Amino acid sequence: MINEIITDQRDRAKKSVESTAREMVVIRTGKASPVLLDNIRVECWGGSHPLKQVAGISAPEPRMLVIQPFDPSTSEAIVKAIETSDLALRANADGPIIRIPVPKLSEERRVELIKQIKKIAESGRTAIRNIRRSGNDSLHSARKDSEITEDEERKALDRIQKIADEAVSEIDRLLKTKEADILEV
After folding, report:
1. Between 142 and which of 10, 12, 123, 147 could a Cys-Cys bridge form, CB atoms 3.0 to 4.6 Å apart?
2. CA-to-CA distance for 103 and 62, rounded, in angstroms?
3. pTM of the prediction?
4. Segment-wise mean pLDDT, segments of 10 residues, the chain, 185 residues
5. Phi and psi (nearest 5°) for 44?
């Protein structure tokens, strides 16, 4: 029973950290990266499709993204999707290829983005605390129902705390790395 709770805690904490990392990775840092466009959806072919399913994306230069649509008729829809996104990027259709210059971030935008990633990190930490709480509750219930001893409960609570601490440390590391990317000139 304890091992099941611990395994569940580890899995849920890992998923929470991964989710936080996915949210942070799409925040623009001033460097061109195809990952920036992961959340872009393009209205074409009678539906809404992720950009990477409609076009190839590359970053041939540090400040330039290049999109090559699989179907040239989707170029206009791709440009529209990029320009209406909250990334504040301008797309230029150059024949079948779409180029997106990635400008340097203004100081004001950097401050805004840092607030945004701190908010994402805090949401991740809150999720970890909630996961820890549910694990602790499961252990307390098991102890109350005499399924485990007090010593086993104490040891398992320590293990759950350690899992939570490691997950929060990983989120803090992700935050620090992303902050450094945003502040980099």
Report:
1. 147
2. 10
3. 0.73
4. 91 96 81 81 87 89 88 87 83 86 84 93 97 95 92 95 97 94 77
5. -160, 165
